[in-house]
Amino acid sequence: MPQSFVDYETNPRELTLRAISTILEVHTRVSDLYSSPHDQIAQQLRLTIESVKERQEAELISHPEYGLLSQATPNQTITPLGKGPTPDDLDNLITKVWKTPSFFLLHPLAYAAFGREATRRGVPPVTVTLFGSQFISWRGIPIIPSDKVPVVDGETSILLVRTGEKRQGVVGLFQPGLVGEQSPGLSVRFNGINQQAIASYLVTLYSSLAVLADDALAVLQGVRVDQYHDYQ
Question: How confident is the model at residue 171 (pLDDT cuts 50, 70, 90)?
């Protein structure tokens, strides 16, 4: 090549962190009398934080502005060859995210549907261990189920994602250094005790995600999850 240049966006997209917040209220009588052997405040906060993170997972997948499903480009969106999710469909997804794909993401119903289709063809998926749990895989790529992937009228989507900033993949965004920070982007603040002796805690999570390159994300749309076969 005699010469080359780097293309760039003259008006790049600005990403804004989204806030998910809730208030936990605990009567001081409960924390005073029932905090042994388990700290009531700590346990109530743990459950509240888990609920907030469940909401975060749903929004990172389905939010109309920054969710994964809304950020897939038309060139990276395909439809299944038949109805149920087949090995051929997942291979087609790999052709869209062929550079170091990280994992497939799909609803548990689609997870089971793919298992049925693969078993029917005599190519049962290989099991891998991630984070101490067993997951099936395809072509060495883990298949991660999440009930936050929407299912509407028996149809859902399957995503293939490449993650990591160095690999120009999908990266999570958060605000560091928050007051009362418990984990990246998550803060817990004590709001005081009112006249009814109820203590309140503000739990806030700031998060978003960015798809650094179009080929870091592909979506298989219109997958049926209600296809069953007679194996006799």
Answer: very high
Beta bridge partners of 163: 170
Residue 111 pLDDT exceeds 90: yes
Contact predicate 157/88, CB 8 Å: no
Sign (positive/negative) of CA torsion 42, 47, 53, 59? Answer: negative
Q: Is 104 helix (H, G, I), strand (E, B) or coil?
A: strand
* 227 vs 45: CA distance, rounded Å: 41
Band of pLDDT at residue 132, cut at 50, 70 and 90: confident
pLDDT at 231: 62
CB 137 within 8 A of CB 128: yes
**220 pLDDT more than 90:** yes
Q: Does the pLDDT at position 53 exceed 90?
A: yes
Rounded-to-integer distance, Cα 226 and Cα 153, Å: 10
Tell me the whole-structure pTM to 2 decimals.
Answer: 0.87
CA angle 47, 49, 55 (to 5 degrees): 110
Q: How many CA atoms lie within 13 A of 29 on its CB side?
A: 2
Tracing tokens 């749990």 back to the chain, one arrives at 133
Other beta carbons within 10 Å of 223:
27
187, two tokens: 């803060």
Question: How does DSSP assign 21-50, residue by residue?
Answer: EEEEEEEHHHHHHS-SSS-HHHHHHHHHHH
End-to-end CA distance of the chain: 60
Mention every residue, 6+ apart, whose C-beta is less than 8 A from residue 123.
87
- 199 three-state secondary structure: strand
